Amino acid sequence: MNPTAKPEATDNREEWPLWEVFVRSKAGLDHKHSGSLHAPDAKLALEMARDVYTRRQEGTSIWVVRSDQIVASDPGDKDMYFDPMEDKVYRHPTFYKLPDEVNHM
Amino acid sequence: MQDSIKVSTDPSVRYLLRLGDTCLVHAQRLGEWCGHAPIIEEDIALTNIALDLIGQARGILTRAGQLGGQQFDEDQLAFLREERDYLNPTLVELPRGDFAVTTVRNLMVAALLELLWTRLQASSDTEVAAVAGKAVKEARYHHRHAADWLVRLGDGTAESRRRIEAALDRLWPYSRELFQPDAIDDAALASDLGPRWAELRDPWLAAMRDALDAAGLGMPAETAFLSSGRMGIHSEHMGHMLAEMQYLQRSYPGGAW
To answer: Most C-beta atoms within 10 A of its C-beta, which of A69, B70, B99, B253?
Structure first.
């Protein structure tokens, strides 16, 4: 969403939409999920995220995403989704012999 | 009961008190929103702004206390002056009102402070210039935040628009005082301490026009009313506000925690 665009209407609902906030702490690092907040539109969501989640120098960049735009896995699918990986240790790259010169792999 | 201090009438001191008191008193009123804002996010935003302003006031009052042959610290200046020795424009001492009043005042003050801090970065007083260098970034954000709220209230519901128009009608007459030229301003210009506030009128009006246009609101008409807080002659609200603000230091001198 373009934060400089004219604020889109929030169809006059009682409740403002929920936004998820992602903050990058310094250049080169990933944006990490910090929390969520209510805001009427994208631009104010960014400003509120700045005011709520970067008060102690936590950030150099902020993303906000409307929570209802996030597609999430169903907690009920947890067994089916994730348990099959339990016995596949060979997927971890821990069986390779590394030459001594290669540090910090 | 702690006695009042008497501050210097040196024009440099008075110029800095006008600026520092604008930040201090505006912050005191904004602080009244703590725990009362319409939403928690804005509650935090308003107190963030208040704390930025307190930081600005501290820097400027500290400097004011060192000039004119006096030695007062920021706390003495903030808490131990008589009402007539506060030189903030009347605009910032008016009761906080509803959220529309607060939004309009935030915009009016932030636009003014942004212009002042921008110019004060080149002040002949290096301490003032240093405060300005930090403060200008804060004021820029305060300005944007208030302008964004103005759009949402002006262009929101019939009720929000009614309130924002009422707030403009209420506060606009107090803007005239901001740009009244006088000898204190002239002295600041002559010593390169800072700009005459009167010179900032046109860019301030342009900034207000931009914000009002974006919100679909018209410029209020200029009125003949002229407030006088910058001369130390305040509204009836100032004494009540100071009584609350000064109570602790007056009753428990030097109290800290």
So the answer is: B99
Query: How many CB atoms neighbour CB A100 within 10 A?
Result: 5
On whether any CB of chain A is under 8 Å from the CB of B48, the answer is yes
Q: How far apart are CA A36 and CA A49, in angstroms?
A: 8
> CA nearest A45 in B: which residue?
B41
Please work out, in degrees rounded to the nearest 5, the angle formed at the alpha carbon of residue B85 by the alpha carbons of B107 and B80: 100
ipTM of the complex: 0.80
A16, A40, A52 ranked by CB distance to B44: nearest: A52
Residues of chain A contacting B155 with CB distance shorter than 8 Å = 7
CA B135 to CA B1: how far, in whole Å?
34
Query: Dihedrals φ, ψ of B33, to 5°?
Result: -80, -10
Q: Which residue of B has its CA nearest to A38?
A: B41
A21-53 exposure pattern, b = at least 16 Cβ within 10 A, e = fewer: bbbbbeeeeeeeebebbbbbbbbbbbbbbbbbb
CA distance B174 to chain A (A): 28
Q: What is the structure's pLDDT at A1?
A: 45
Tokens coding A68: 């209802």
Note the pLDDT tens digit of each residue in A4-45. Answer: 544 555 555 568 999 999 999 998 899 999 999 999 999 999
**pLDDT value, residue A12:** 52
Instruction: Return d(Cα B24, Cα B77) in angstroms, integer.
Output: 11
**Closest chain A residue by Cα to residue B149:** A44
B37 contacts on A by Cβ (under 8 Å): none
Mean pLDDT of the B11-37 span: 97
The 8-class DSSP code of residue A56 comes to: T
Asked if the model's pLDDT at residue B133 lies above 50, the reply is yes
Q: Minimal Cα–Cα distance from A75 to chain B, Å?
A: 30
